[in-house]
Amino acid sequence: MLVDSHAHLNMTQFDADLPAVIERASLAGIGEMLNVGYDPESIEGTLALVDEYPTIYAALGIHPHNATDWNADLEEKIKQLLLRRKVIAYGEIGLDYYRDLSPRDTQREVFRKQIGLALRFKKPIVVHCREAFDDVIRILNEEGARETGGIFHAFSGGDREAEKVLDLGFLIGIGGTLTYRNSSLPGVATRLPSSAFVLETDCPYLPPEPHRGKRNEPAYVAIVAERLAELRGVAAADIERASSDNYMSLLHGEKERPVSVAYGLRKSVYLNVTASCTNDCVFCARLRSNNQLYGYNLNLVVDPPVDRMVAAVNGILAPGRFEEIVFCGYGEPTARLKAIKETADALRGHGLPLRLNTNGHGNMINRRDIVPELEERFSRVSISLNAPDRGTYTAICRPDAGEKAFDAVLDFIRRAAASRMECMVTAVDYPGVDIEAARRLVESIPGARFRARKYHFTGASG
Ligand code: SF4
Ligand SMILES: [Zn+2]
Predict the structure, then answer these.
(1) Ligand 1: which residue has its CA nearest to atom 6?
(2) CATH at 195
(3) Mutation probe of ligand 1 site: the residue of 283, 384, 392 with most atoms within 8 A of C-beta
(4) Among the three residues 207, 228, 251, which one is the final residue of a domain in this structure?
(5) CA distances in angstroms from 376 to 233, 332, 333, 425, listed in the order given
(6) Where among 202, 217, 251 does a domain terminate?
(7) One domain for residues 198 and 110
(8) Do strands 448-453 and 56-60 pair parallel, antiparallel, or not at all (unpaired)?
């Protein structure tokens, strides 16, 4: 299911054909729309819509343009409306220093008051922010908005702003501008953790290409999902699962999903082998995020036994859907060498190539050369190197083994590259890492290929 997390279907642009618009949304797989009322009139319109359509929910609040409308009567009315079942968010509220339709000090004062109401009524906040980023973030922090969380709607900032939004625990709303030429959004959107975004239209405004210049509508969320999938190198179904999961847990308070031991992403089945690692990379999502990846909960409490891993893979394999089985985890699979060998032996019968994702510490951990045991089972190995030299590696990957780990990884890479396995060596383009130097180092090793991976603001995996 896809969700349009920001729509204005009450506006006159939809007067003539709203039922057809809703029908098209449902045919495009949009299972829910959050309609946003931003002034007394659009709040009325929004409430009428949620009463009529089961798939429409409401956010309501007073937009910064209308901040001068704020008064005790309006506040009282909003408090009453916040008690309604289908009113699930507070907004859109915020600051707009671009159009400055209300005095800035009034905007700030009304923004603070409404954050207070959102907290009191436990409603996530839908933020409108134009040319006022620093003030918006400061006020949200000062007022404790982290407690309810929320969505930065129509996000238009860069990396710095995205990191601040994520630090605050808010989600980033991605819409049609993702498809515009000259937009900076694609760069930011590829670096977001998969647990950090929701999709939106802001219809009737901001339609994605090729509908630019016309009216936007919820069905076009599917276009944004396709584009985001393309940019992030995943399937549209992965974006759909991640964005709706992010939305549902924020807006409907859905509980965590059960832990996934095996999960499908792109055309691969991933096996979540372990959560313990001999590195502590600065960019690792393990222990620093909620371990949610594209809507899957990867938060292993104990390492799954062999029979559970085999059953989990068998449970999701569907003929023709996947092209490989990948042994990975937010941890180091070769620390469970016996278990991965037995699991690989049990899964061989499927005829799919088996790949091992590793930090290259396997020989150090097992105190012998394990490459011969691996090449008997795995046809591919991906090794994270992440740095072109010992100093950078030690600083970034923070290995338990200290300085000697880098040489051990290089030795492992040389042996793996000389084996029957296809050997891919990766480095995350973390700020300060000389990716080209890492590439040169890897490409000097016969049989090894290099791939740069995108640094995600709070997690490298996926
Ligand atoms: S990124 Fe990989 S190697 Fe680094 S700490 Fe996380 S799981 Fe271990
Ligand atoms: Zn809006």
Answers:
(1) 284
(2) 3.20.20.140
(3) 384
(4) 251
(5) 30, 19, 16, 20
(6) 251
(7) yes
(8) unpaired
> How far, in Å, is the centroid of ligand 1 from the Cα of 450?
18
Supply the residue whose CA is at minimum distance from atom 1 of ligand 1: 284
Q: What digits encode the pLDDT tens for the residues 163-221? A: 999 999 999 999 999 999 989 999 999 999 999 999 999 999 999 999 999 999 999 99
Supply 339's token pair.
């278990």
Q: Is the domain of 293 the same as that of 187? A: no
* Ligand showing the shortest atom-to-Cα distance for residue 93: 2
The per-residue pLDDT for range 123-147, each reduced to its tens digit, is 999 999 999 999 999 999 999 999 9
Q: What tokens appear for 190 in the block?
A: 């590829």
Q: Provide the residue range defining the domain that includes 21.
A: 2-251
Ligand 1: residues with CB < 6 A are: 277, 279-281, 284, 286, 330-332, 359, 384, 397, 460
In ligand 1, the atom with minimum distance to the C-alpha of 397 is: 4
Q: What is the DSSP string of 18-39?
A: HHHHHHHHHHTTEEEEEEEE-S
